[in-house]
Design brief:
about 475 residues, FAD/NAD(P)-binding domain, Enolase-like, domain 1, 3 domains, five-stranded mixed barrel, five-stranded parallel beta sheet, globular, Dihydrolipoyl dehydrogenase, oxidoreductase
Amino acid sequence: MAKQFDVVVIGAGPGGYIAAIRAAQLGLTVACIDAWSTSDGKPAPGGTCTNVGCIPSKALLQSSEHYEQVNHHLAEHGIDVKDVALKLDTLIGRKSNVVKQNNDGILYLFKKNKITFFHGMGSFVSQVDGGWSIKVSGASDEDLVARHVVVATGSAPRALPGLPFDEKQVLSNDGALRIPAVPKKLGVIGAGVVGLELGSVWRRLGAEVTILEAMPDFLAAADQQVAKEAQKAFAKQNLVIQTGVKIGEVKVSAKSLSIAYTDAAGAEQKLVVDKLIVSIGRVPHTEGLGVDTVGLKLDDRGFVVVDEDCKTNLPNVWAVGDVVRGPMLAHKAEEEGVAVAERIAGQHGHVNFGTIPWVIYTSPEIAWVGKTEQQLKTESREYKAGSFPFLANGRARALGDTTGFVKVLADAKTDEVLGVHIIGPMASELIAEAVMVMEFRGAAEDIGRVCHAHPTLSEALKEAALAVDKRALNF
């Protein structure tokens, strides 16, 4: 006898588990299916983000930042440290423990919200009376019937053609998070978020890191002024970044890899490394879902086709997160998950793609929301810009981290904030205020008139907003 639910969510990543929780809060009976397992076969909900993405990478970034501080920056604070030793197994072990805490936290939330969790692969079987027949293939197979189905199966790393991941020498984000020894030379293909963050981790721990990027411009999605500042900062850290390259043959031997490539000037080059991280994007994951069985429509890139409300071509079947259009960001998936749950319950969930923040957790951190200057120029929109350097911020000086600036872009006539761009300390936290202002369609004047505690990094945002009207007070 099939078990009946109002909602069955396939996938327990950020989009899936949040959709399940919100649907349960709204009084619906909910099941969530997820196949991710720990090394000993136990459930590991949380998807890529929790297991091999956002959470473990931040744990390693934090640990590597501490190591860098001890080795290179504590002396200026009058702290003399000698005989520093790196215990990489302990560092990786801490990362794994952080991941487990998040896995366990999601399982607790399922229990708290009376969500039935099934550990296994979920797939469509057929349309039936009362909704959709869903099969769970796991340690014990289950048959479910769902009135509504939410597909939240996420994405997988894209491999270079002819160079599959072995997670020993050719690494995806997964293998890059658990390298057993610091490589002497590390290559990274792709200067996006993953490449920069993981390249930063291993550079701090002692590797010589070279990043090869196909795009001619560094961080083309970011504001150009921010990208230039970032490239300058990374160069000072000896993080080598080459743009405009074309990757040729990659030869893998027992102990090294040789990457042939053409540089931006057209010259043939060769890079020999111990390990290679390939971070050239991600592809939607629909394998094993039973797409063809029920006729779930995919686009030519493999994404599940949805409308603006995340509805698929099938009745009462929804899809959210990395498996659909839009930015592949955990917080975007969460917002879609909440919105879909509310729509199923007859409410009017909403996701504003124009105020989704972007963050790169390097040092300095990079964060932005809204339009860049180059986008506003392309749109021929009249705007005003104000910026403020962390060099002039008292808290940044006290921290000893004055790299970067805050830039606010506002409509030339209405003063509405159109974009905010931050490179510098704690940019990932500072961007939230900008998102809030833009959600309320606030003006630069609004930010400038709000009292910010002193001394704080947030004062840099206030000063940048004041600078839009050419009246910054501390610069």
